[in-house]
């Protein structure tokens, strides 16, 4: 089926990925409008169904209706399926079914898989796709089991197992959908070490990138890590540690967040709120109760997002690290950006700048439009929502459920662009390099 579509329309990999995500969203929209999808038997209105399907497929987590109380088991399973396919990539599943049916993976399909998994070459992409599926299944099952054991103390065993699996899949794919009801996410477990640590681990494993996970797994044999993996691990660790420390300090005296908690609760809540902006969307503290300084910090973390080749969004940790490296090199008067005694090529710096500026422009444009359409909404709330949508995070200050029809459409488009945009732009730039047969004379302009 996929090969027929590619041959008929002659689509290149970026266009195929965009079309693939659009088709999944369309299918999910139709399924969520059916009467069987909602508790009231009416089905979701088309706009709300489209918004929910986009949020699930783009693994964001922004919702206009409460997932736990609005949808039936059928509706929740539809959402969960879109989260899984959207998080791992439809090409990963297409490859899986092709292998089951013992069909050969064509060169064009390998190129699509390369783009879907954000790899630099097609070498080993089929093997990596197999690893992604196996690792995801094992991680989600183990995480679901641990959460189910903890939830079993608060609810019947069958419900605890279902809740455990749902939240494990949702958080591993960095989606942030929850079934707790009343838009509460995991706030009732703010001081629970099991829920906090398991969910944090699921978010981290889903957000560091499958190439990194694969290298860490094979490290016992290879005894080496690529530059990419080193940069991802170091940058991620710095962002999480710095974010947790700043949130701890900023919220320590806030009577609505950290102040009433035990010392261990304060640490867990700070760590969780630092990890979840890595495009996960779950929260254990009530987001609107956070200090403005903390909210702005979370906006920055959401914009950076997860790592390449993961289930998360944002401009990615490697992009951020490359730009910081370029700034430091300029300040020190050096021509090259050096990471771990290796030089970053200039075109990678340009690509990082392009992805960052594209994301920044999109967030600014969406924020400006929402400032017009959402009359009476606080500016910080609008900026927070726009960044959350772009980074496919799902954290919200409460604006999403009250969005106007235009606002819902804009945020849905932003989630879609955030899921496929930076990745597609980066690879499009890599594929469209053309040899220049002449160069213009140098020119000088004043900077700064």
Task: Kindly describe this structure.
The chain is an all-alpha fold and 448 residues long. It has one domain. It is built from 18 helices and two strands. Strands 1-2 form a two-stranded antiparallel sheet. A hairpin with a 2-residue loop joins strand 1 (337-339) and strand 2 (342-344). The protein starts with a helix and ends in a 17-residue tail after the last helix. 46% of the residues are buried. The mean pLDDT is 84.
Descriptive tags:
globular, 1% strand, 448 residues, two-stranded antiparallel ribbon, mainly alpha, 2 strands, single chain, 18 helices
User: Quick one: how many beta strands?
Assistant: 2
**Percentage of residues in helical conformation:** 55-70%
Structural class, from secondary structure content? Answer: mainly alpha
Order of helices and strands: HHHHHHHHHHHHHHHEEHHH
Radius of gyration based on Cα positions: 22 Å
Strand order of the largest sheet: 1-2
In short:
The chain has helices spanning 2-9, 13-32, 46-57, 67-70, 73-88, 90-100, 107-116, 125-151, 157-172, 193-207, 210-222, 227-251, 263-275, 292-304, 317-331, 346-373, 379-390, 405-431, and strands at residues 337-339, 342-344. By secondary structure, the chain is mainly alpha-helical. It has one domain (2-431).
Topology:
Blueprint: H1 2-9, H2 13-32, H3 46-57, H4 67-70, H5 73-88, H6 90-100, H7 107-116, H8 125-151, H9 157-172, H10 193-207, H11 210-222, H12 227-251, H13 263-275, H14 292-304, H15 317-331, E1 337-339, E2 342-344, H16 346-373, H17 379-390, H18 405-431
Antiparallel strand pairs: 1-2
Helix pairs in contact: 2-3, 2-5, 2-7, 2-18, 3-5, 3-18, 6-7, 6-8, 8-9, 8-10, 9-10, 10-13, 12-13, 12-14, 14-17, 15-16, 16-17, 16-18, 17-18
């Amino acid at each position: 089926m996929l090969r027929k579509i590619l041959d008929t329309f002659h689509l290149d990999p970026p266009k195929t990925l965009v079309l693939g995500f659009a088709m999944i969203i369309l299918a999910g929209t139709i399924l969520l409008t059916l009467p069987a999808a909602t508790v009231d038997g009416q089905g979701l209105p088309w706009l709300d169904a489209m918004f929910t399907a986009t949020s699930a497929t783009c693994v964001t987590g922004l919702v206009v209706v409460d997932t736990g109380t609005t949808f039936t088991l059928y509706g929740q399973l539809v959402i969960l399926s879109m989260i899984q396919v959207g998080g791992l990539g439809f090409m990963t599943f297409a490859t899986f079914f092709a292998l089951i049916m013992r069909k050969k993976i064509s060169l064009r399909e390998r190129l699509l898989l390369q783009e879907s998994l954000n790899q630099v070459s097609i070498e080993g992409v089929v093997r990596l796709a197999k690893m992604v599926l196996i690792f995801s299944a094992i991680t989600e099952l183990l995480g679901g089991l641990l959460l189910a054991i903890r939830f079993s103390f608060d609810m019947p065993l069958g419900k605890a197992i279902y809740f455990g699996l749902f939240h494990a899949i949702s958080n591993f794919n960095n989606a942030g959908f929850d079934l707790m009801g009343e838009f509460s996410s995991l706030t009732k477990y703010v001081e629970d070490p099991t829920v906090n640590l398991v969910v944090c681990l699921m978010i981290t494993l889903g957000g560091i990138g499958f190439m990194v996970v694969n290298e860490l797994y094979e490290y016992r044999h290879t005894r080496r890590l690529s530059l990419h993996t080193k940069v991802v691990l170091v940058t991620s660790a710095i962002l999480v540690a710095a974010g947790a420390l700043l949130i701890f300090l900023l919220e320590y005296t806030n009577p609505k967040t950290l102040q009433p908690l035990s010392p261990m609760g304060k640490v867990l809540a700070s760590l969780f709120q630092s990890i979840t902006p890595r495009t996960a969307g779950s929260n254990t503290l009530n987001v609107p109760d956070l200090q403005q300084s903390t909210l702005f910090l979370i906006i920055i973390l959401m914009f950076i997002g997860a790592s390449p080749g993961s289930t998360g969004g944002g401009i990615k940790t490697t992009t951020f690290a490359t730009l910081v490296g370029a700034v430091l090199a300029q300040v020190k008067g050096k021509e090259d950006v050096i990471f771990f005694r290796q030089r970053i090529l200039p075109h990678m710096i340009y690509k990082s700048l392009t992805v960052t500026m594209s994301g920044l422009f999109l967030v600014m444009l969406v924020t400006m439009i929402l400032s017009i359409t959402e009359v009476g909404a606080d500016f910080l709330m609008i900026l927070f929502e726009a960044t959350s949508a772009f980074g496919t995070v799902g954290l919200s200050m409460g604006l999403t459920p009250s969005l106007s029809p235009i606002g819902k459409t804009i945020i849905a488009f932003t989630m879609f662009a955030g899921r496929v945009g930076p990745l597609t732009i980066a690879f499009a730039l890599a594929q469209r390099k053309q040899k220049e047969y002449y160069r213009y004379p140098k020119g000088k302009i004043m900077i700064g």
